[in-house]
UniProtKB/TrEMBL annotation:
Compartments reported by the entry: Cell membrane
GO biological process, one term: transmembrane transport
Sequence intervals crossing the membrane: 20-38, 44-65, 77-100, 164-182, 220-243, 249-269, 276-293, 313-340
UniProt-recorded name of the protein: AI-2E family transporter
Keyword Cell membrane recorded: yes
Segments for region (Disordered): 355-379
Length: 379
């Protein structure tokens, strides 16, 4: 478009700034609309994203069985049943250990409370027993006064449980189809793009999914090491509920850098209540040591090889995800960034990817377009 006299009267830098500004505003508006829609449809979006992460973890095993002659459907069923059996067994063992260890923890906490009460009375504070009893009665009365709020919170929790069950069923249903026919689904979705860019889009999806597989594998290994380190330390010190607490550390470690530390502080609290201040400090030291092992050895060697993301980008992604969607956002932020990072590299490359869009022999690309259908391969 030829410039007008009014355009010529404006400094070039101002025109360029204005051009950039309105384009960035349009991009920002599109991003806000996308996140608003995603939050409105969270009960659908979150299960699909979790299913995609689980697909990245399980699809190599399914592909391995399929390449060795097992029907695709049978391989999917075997891997899912095996995975659910392992998770169910671990949960049953953890819950049983929690039930067994809870009475002992209650007894130790009771002794700790009695010791604190004795110290408050006979120690340097010299509080009277009546003051301590009044403080306890005030706390009980505050709970009674807020009983209605607690009840409404329980109702809200029940509704949340219903949503979790619904989301879990949807995630399982989506996971089955991703494992069985994910490549064909991706091949079909990319047909909305023009033919001249379709191959590059498929290659970008393949590259992004490979980074997602690397991220899930590396995170699983890091979480396992974190849980083993914390659990071993708690067991050696004789802290109650060592295994359930280590399991919480394992789950929390799926949020990089901060998840294991936050979930590990519960172990510090349990050690404080059950064993005293010294053991709580030792537990904190174990937690810090495991975190340093993760940050300086496991993350660079394991995660760095799988996903090339700067630590600052990881922290910003977790913070942004947490602000936008809470714990779920923090959990999904880093794998989303890892996926987009590799996908955009392929999309913006100066030369189209020369990597063939076929199975790579490693079971590491669910989003690859294969000329034959999965149904034909499974026969």
């Amino acid at each position: 478009m030829p410039s007008t006299p009014d355009d010529d009267s404006v400094e070039p830098i101002v025109r360029k700034t204005a051009a950039w500004a309105w384009r960035l505003l349009v991009i920002l508006a599109a991003a806000v609309a996308f996140f608003w829609l995603a939050r409105r449809l969270a009960i659908v979006v979150v299960p699909v994203l979790v299913a995609l992460m689980l697909t990245a973890l399980l699809v190599p095993a399914v592909d391995w069985l399929n390449r060795r002659g097992a029907p695709r459907g049978g391989a999917v069923a075997l891997v899912l049943l095996t995975g659910m059996a392992i998770v169910g067994g671990i949960l049953a063992f953890v819950i049983s250990q929690f039930v067994i260890g809870l009475p002992g923890l209650v007894e130790q906490v009771t002794r700790s409370i009695d010791s604190v009460r004795k110290w408050l009375i006979e120690g340097p504070l010299h509080l009277s027993r009546a003051q301590i009893d009044n403080a306890g009665n005030a706390a009980i009365q505050a709970l009674r006064n807020n009983q209605e709020k607690l009840t409404s919170g329980a109702v809200s929790t029940a509704a949340t449980v219903t949503e979790v069950v619904t989301g879990a069923l949807m995630m399982l249903f989506t996971l089955i189809f991703f494992l069985y026919g994910g490549r064909n689904i991706w091949h079909y979705v990319t047909k909305i793009f023009p033919v001249r860019v379709r191959d590059r889009v498929r290659a970008a999806g393949s590259a992004g999914f490979r980074s997602l597989i690397g991220y899930v594998r590396a995170t699983f290994l890091v979480a396992l090491v974190d849980a083993a380190g914390v659990g071993t330390g708690l067991a050696i010190m004789g802290v109650p509920l060592a295994l359930p607490l280590a399991s919480l550390v394992f789950l929390g470690a799926f949020i990089p850098l901060v998840g294991a530390v936050i979930s590990g502080f519960l172990a510090v609290v349990v050690a404080l209540l059950a064993k005293g201040f010294i053991y709580a400090l030792i537990t904190l030291g174990v937690l810090i040591g495991v975190n340093q092992l993760e940050a300086h050895i496991l993350q660079p060697l394991v995660m760095g090889r799988a996903v090339s993301i700067h630590p600052l980008a990881v922290v910003l992604a977790i913070s942004t995800g947490g602000v936008l969607a809470g714990v779920v956002g923090a959990l999904l932020a880093v794998p989303t960034v890892a996926f987009l990072n590799n996908a955009f590299r392929v999309l913006t490359a100066s030369q189209p990817s020369t990597e063939p869009l076929t199975h790579d022999g490693e079971g590491s690309a669910i989003m690859q377009a294969e000329p034959d259908s999965l149904e034909d391969r499974s026969e």
